[in-house]
Task: structure prediction
Amino acid sequence: MKRCLSERTMWLVHEGAAPERDLAHLEGCLDCAARYGRLNEELGEITRALRDHASPIGRDVRRGRRRWVTAAAVLAGIGLLAGGEAVLWRQSNALVDPRPETTAEALSLLEEVTLLLSSPGVTAASVLVADPATVIAEMTSPESYEDDPIAAGGGGGGGRL
Amino acid sequence: MNGQAAPRWQAHCDALYRQHAARLVRLGRLVLGDKQEAEEVAQEVFLKLIRTYEGPVVPIDWAAWLTRVTINACRDRRRAGWWAWSRRHRAPEMLELVDGGASPEQAAAGAEFGVRIAAAFQRLSARQREVFALRYIEGMSTHEVAGTLDLSEGSVKRHLFRAVKYLRGALGEIKGDRGHR
Ligand SMILES: [Zn+2]
Result:
């Protein structure tokens, strides 16, 4: 029997990128099968730990959502002031930046507002919005992000883990 | 709003936010190692989305677009001068412990394991963090990772394997430490 698989080859098997002869070895070698099992298990542990650790928790989710809803509402408000959605977001086939000046100005203002909202002590209600009642309702909504965007198909591709 | 439906762009952008914001914050946090930075990057990306959005039918993959723009925004932050200064003055372990969002309850319940894995992850190179996060956390194929990062597949595999090897070593040490307590 061919000598046992290297760590890299084992990982290539995991990635589905190892040649047939290495797969055949893995099937016939108890040692390599055990090592392969450990690789799978450890990668799973690492991935779960990183995913859990880095995923935003409830209060962060709500804060991010507040900022986003306010920013979008501010832009909608600016759109209404500037004459409506058609002015801001009209279709264009141009390859270069097709946005009218108004949009550029609106976005610049919006970025300033977003920065302002990042500051402690500033509430969304103090900012011009299209419909404050809608924004406040959105801000208090507990549902913000979808539970698991990965499971929902975000990001594309299908990992093994 | 006031009896009117929300504008189409707003509804679509909001749907994209709901679907992708959490994963983009997570991706940014893994790549940058800083929760606050990651949240700011996500906001930046969604403002850019509004900028880019032009109509109801847009012939591109928004999920892939958001991922790529997030990675680029993280790179821009890393390139900024103050970022290097900030990283020098704050150890990743402390960043994650202090700013990391782990509640005292979580910490008490054994989040130390996650903190230590995350700290090991932050010791990888920036490129290794990107490929690992996209491949194993985002679930992209090696081919998709290569496309997103403008790398060859061979290069993605090299970075990935080194990252996996390092992290498995770190996992072994963490488990060893736990076993000796
Ligand atoms: Zn063997």
Chain A is about 60% helix and 0% strand.
